[in-house]
Design a protein that fits this description.
Number of helices of chain A: 15
Number of helices of chain B: 15
Largest sheet of chain A: 9 strands, mixed
CATH architecture of chain B: Alpha-Beta Complex
Helix content of chain B: 25-40%
Distance between the termini of chain A: 70 Å
Structural class of chain B: alpha/beta
Radius of gyration of chain B: 21 Å
Strand content of chain B: 5-15%
CATH topology of chain B: Amidase signature (AS) enzymes
Number of strands of chain A: 16
CATH superfamily of chain B: Amidase signature (AS) domain
Oligomer: heterodimer
Number of strands of chain B: 11
Shape of chain B: globular
Strand content of chain A: 15-25%
Largest sheet of chain B: 11 strands, mixed
Strand order of the largest sheet of chain A: 2-6-7-10-1-11-12-13-14
Number of domains of chain A: 3
Radius of gyration of chain A: 30 Å
Number of domains of chain B: 1
Distance between the termini of chain B: 16 Å
């Protein structure tokens, strides 16, 4: 059932955990590299050996500072770690080192744009903690534990319950991911587990202030999945209320297959984590100097870059949006602009390069599920090709073919144009010859044109292109064709 | 013989490390069963190490500060490849996969590891009676306890079964057994010695320290084990002085404070007398003595018995049979994960450990945290402030180490609270993070050793050594040995 938003308003808060992509774990020097043999990236510290002690990896703090800066958070000059105590086989010490009362950062925001409307999603806090291991259940035998993942640094980012629709939730996640990838702090890939998200959702009749009874929704593994789960849960809660029932505060698992949330209540008891300050670690002191030092190493943030692309390059908001969606694409684009000074009008050049990147390049890459970092066409190659177009060596149409060839072979445009003999024919006398030949071969159609059927012009152009294998300079060819047809 | 005497003899090749080590091992074989100080005797390995040191010396190669000296390590400190049991069933078969930092340092100093010593289980106790391997006996009277939790270490040194030893002290576990066994035991300033590799009991209170025959040996050992460690974030990055340079026989103008709260009820008469005699002697040697007050002393035991069990309840959570150590039987219909946890920990831990885990879990739980753990930490700050103020007026504070001499085995086991009060004079130093030493200062009517405690401000070990050494050199208590 879909919620009726004229009757109810939705209240959503999101809790996101991202894996911080440092080379080493947060409290020991073990590697965080994914996919290694089970229990090969471990040491006494991350396996909870008797007598082992945690040592904070400063790089993780640096990445958290970057995140806090890019979300406008207040960074605590002193923050402390705390133990979250509970028993589970994937938690070697049976406590997780996390942060509780004095988190690293508080009170920031992420600005999103939902169907043209801007909104600031408020962040309550950002804090650091360590990840647990992986349990693999083997039917009939029991469970196996892999501690490679224990101690992987996590950043927990918590919003206020200010999100009012599943679409806002989706946009928030997309924007957050973009920011975190821009600053190089996390891959934010839900499929690989470097981003996890739990949602808290409640509903209230329109007009009534405050929060409703919330349920926690877990087990989503894509941003769209989260959107669907929230839609479902909002609808479910409405149905309960409409039937006169009460919402039970509950933890529910999203089942992607059936498209429903299922209560976990039988499993979950209220956990008392007995938080207390971690006595093995000293407070994390973050000075203004350190913050400034980190700030100076940060790249331009996505929103700022998007705005600059519009003002500096005259791009439309759609184009700027596509080009800045990922830092690597924006970098590629700007590298192209830096390389190719073709003497063309600035804005025209910017638009042309944009079209090639957004169009042909991204399309090819997407088809092969490649990222722009894997592009066989480098900025140098693309700019070189555009250069040939500007000089008139090839037409726009031929350029498309050159591009495909470049992409498939990795050869430079110069080589391809030469080998495939794609140089555009711009020599007027040559074109005249081809036009006259074509006219001779299509006397009937030409007659029809000359008797007033203008629409067959397109066909004749097509024939011309076919005859010349598309190599005639279209502008010149058109002019000459028209001339010859007038006769 | 003391380590400092033996080191000279070994260097001069008057004696070999091998002969010393073999002699000690023989002594352990002959008299070891009498006092049960050892969990593991590292006989073969020790002889091998000793031979290597002797070779190095013969070849004129450089050797470490403790070259050839047999040392006994408390069984809650990891030596790679040895059992580290913490005198508990739950770690009975646990073999250390790594060396503690202090062990690395001692190894570099070329000392000879002769074994792991018996202790109260997980360091929780004041008599070594909670050990899974049964109690260690006091060599001065084998019907009595040696103190705890480093009872094995203290007893072995007193009985000549080790030249040097290392213990750990959370509420008095080095000082109190040293006192009861008539040897020297030092708890360094919190953060002076790395805790990496020490099985944690109470993280904010634990420290590793030397248990030795005299103050010179303790200073030597402190030189070796002290220092900042990257692996221990609570260790302090301050240079380590040469503690042997502080062994000066001169207490002129040292200001000594006597806290009146440490000399009231519960203190045995013989102990009181011995301590006052010691103070008198120091005064006659030129020290200035004044009475002072540490007003929050009466809350120390209560605060400790909230803070230590709380941290312990979390530190001991890792012993669940999943990764290492004892795992209970998993057989049976419908046995769940919780069942295995409960069985393992129920069967693997002794009574006192379970008692403290329960206490600690309760104190940290929702609704009680503020009233107990948080409150106790606030009281702790007040206790520390008492000392800060006192050390603005005096250099050293002198107290008895323990309220009594060694009590009989079984005498206090029925009443945990009575047992807890054995720590009444030592506990505050752990709460405040200050250093403290116990040195022998006499015997009671039964011939049982009495200990004198000296406390100083943080990183004031040199003042402690100077005062303790002066007293020691002008008496002779440390030269007395029990007859086994």
């Amino acid at each position: 059932m879909v919620i009726d938003t004229s009757k109810y308003r939705i209240i959503i808060g999101l809790e996101v955990h991202v894996q911080v992509k440092t080379d080493s774990k947060i409290f020991c020097g073990c590697s965080t590299a994914f996919g290694a043999e089970p229990n090969s990236h471990t040491c006494p510290k991350c396996t909870g050996m008797p007598g082992a002690l945690p040592v904070l990896n400063k790089k993780v703090v640096e990445y958290a500072i970057k995140t806090a800066i890019s979300t406008g958070c207040r960074i605590a000059p002193s923050s402390i770690f705390a133990r979250k105590n509970y028993f589970y086989p994937d938690l070697p010490k049976n406590y997780q080192i996390s942060q509780y009362e004095q988190p690293l950062a508080e009170n920031g925001f992420v600005e999103i744009n939902v169907e043209g409307v801007k909104k600031k999603i408020e962040l309550i806090r950002i804090h650091l903690e360590e990840d647990a291991g992986k349990l693999i259940h083997v039917t009939g035998e029991g469970s196996l534990v892999d501690f490679n993942r224990t101690g992987t640094p996590l950043m927990e980012i918590v919003t206020t319950p200010c999100i009012t629709s599943s679409l806002e939730a989706y946009e928030y996640l997309v924007t957050l991911k973009r920011i975190l990838r821009y600053i190089g702090v996390s891959e934010c890939d839900m499929e690989k587990g470097s981003l996890r998200c739990d949602a808290n959702i409640s509903i209230k009749p329109q007009g009534e202030p405050g929060l409703g009874v919330k349920t926690e929704v877990k087990n989503m593994n894509s941003f769209k999945g989260i959107q669907r789960a929230l839609d479902y849960e909002a609808g479910r809660q409405m149905e309960v209320l409409e039937e006169g029932g009460k919402i039970l505060q509950d933890t529910r698992l999203w089942d992607e297959k059936s498209g429903r949330t299922v209560s976990m209540r039988s499993k979950e008891e209220a956990h008392d984590y007995r938080y207390f300050p971690e006595p093995d670690l000293v407070p994390v002191i973050i000075s203004a100097d350190w913050i400034n030092e980190v700030r100076s190493t940060m790249p331009e943030l996505p929103h700022a870059r998007y705005c600059r692309f519009m003002t500096e390059y005259g791009l439309s908001d759609y184009d700027a949006g596509v080009l800045t969606a990922e830092k690597e694409i924006a970098d590629y684009y700007e590298n192209c602009l830096l390389l190719g000074k073709t003497g063309k009008e600035e804005k025209e050049r910017c638009k042309m390069v944009a079209n090639w990147v957004m169009g042909d390049l991204l399309r090819h890459l997407n088809e092969e599920n490649k990222t722009i970092n894997d592009s066989p066409v480098s900025p140098e190659m693309l700019v070189s090709m555009i250069g040939f177009m500007d000089k008139g060596t090839i037409s726009g149409k031929i350029a498309k073919e050159v591009f495909s060839q470049m992409y498939d072979s990795g050869d430079s445009p110069a080589v391809i144009i030469k080998e495939k003999n794609l140089v555009q024919v711009s020599d007027e006398s040559e074109i005249v010859r081809i036009v006259e030949e074509m006219i001779n071969e299509n006397k009937d159609i030409v007659k029809r044109y000359r008797t007033g059927e203008e629409k067959v012009f397109g066909f004749l152009v097509g024939q011309l292109m076919k005859k010349s294998k598309g190599k005639v300079n279209p502008a010149i060819a058109n002019k000459i064709l028209l001339e010859k047809l007038q006769k | 013989m003391t380590a400092h005497e033996l080191i000279k003899k070994i260097k001069n090749r008057e004696m070999s490390s091998e002969e010393i080590t073999v002699s000690i091992l023989n002594r352990i074989k002959e008299t070891g069963g009498n006092i049960n100080a050892f969990v593991t005797v590292m006989g073969e390995l020790a002889v091998k190490q000793a031979k290597e040191v002797d070779s190095k010396i013969k070849e004129g190669k450089p050797v470490g500060m403790l070259a050839g000296i047999p040392i006994l390590i408390k069984d809650n400190i990891n030596i790679k490849g040895t059992r580290t049991t913490c005198s508990s069933k739950i770690l009975n078969d646990f073999v250390s996969p790594y060396d503690a930092t202090v062990v690395k340092k001692i190894r570099s100093a070329d000392a000879i590891f002769i074994g792991k010593s018996n202790m109260d289980e997980f360091a929780m106790g004041s008599s070594t009676e909670t050990s899974h391997f049964s109690v260690t006996k006091n060599p001065w009277d084998i019907a009595r306890i040696p103190g705890g939790s480093s009872g094995g270490s203290a007893a072995a040194v007193a009985a000549g079964q080790a030249v040097l030893s290392i213990g750990s002290d959370t509420g008095g576990s080095i000082r109190q057994p040293a006192s009861l066994c008539g040897v020297v035991g030092l708890k360094p300033t919190y953060g002076r010695v790395s805790r990496y590799g020490l099985v944690a009991f109470a993280s904010s209170l634990d420290q590793i320290g030397p248990i030795t025959k005299d103050t010179t040996d303790a200073a030597l050992l402190m030189n070796v084990i002290s220092g900042y460690d990257d692996n221990d974030s609570t260790s302090v990055n301050l240079p380590v002085p040469d503690y042997t340079k502080a062994l000066i026989n001169n207490v002129r103008n040292i200001k000594i404070g006597i806290p009146k709260e440490y000399f009231s009820q519960g203190l045995d008469n013989d102990v009181k007398t011995a301590v006052m005699e010691a103070v008198k002697l120091l005064k006659s040697m030129g020290a200035q003595v004044k009475e002072l007050s540490l007003p929050h002393t009466e809350y120390a035991v209560a605060a400790y018995y909230i803070i230590a069990p709380s941290e312990a309840s979390s530190n001991l959570a890792r012993y669940d049979g999943v990764k290492y150590g004892y795992r209970a039987n998993e057989e049976g219909e419908g046995v769940s994960l919780i069942d295995v946890y409960e069985r393992t920990r129920g069967e693997g831990f002794g009574q006192e450990v379970k008692r403290r885990i329960m206490l600690g879990t309760y104190s940290l739980s929702s609704g009680y945290y503020d009233a107990y753990y948080l409150k106790a930490q606030k009281v702790r700050t007040l206790i520390k402030q008492d000392f800060d103020k006192a050390f603005g007026e005096v250099d050293v504070i002198i107290t008895p180490t323990a309220p009594t001499t060694a009590f009989k085995i079984g005498e206090k086991t029925e009443d945990p609270l009575k047992m807890y009060l054995s720590d009444i004079y030592t506990i505050s130093a752990n709460l405040a993070g200050i250093p403290g030493i116990s040195i022998p200062c006499g015997f009671d009517k039964e011939g049982l050793p009495i200990g004198l405690q000296l406390l100083a401000k943080p990183f004031g070990e040199e003042t402690i050594f100077r005062t303790a050494y002066s007293y020691e050199q002008n008496t002779g208590w440390h030269l007395k040995e029990p007859k086994l």
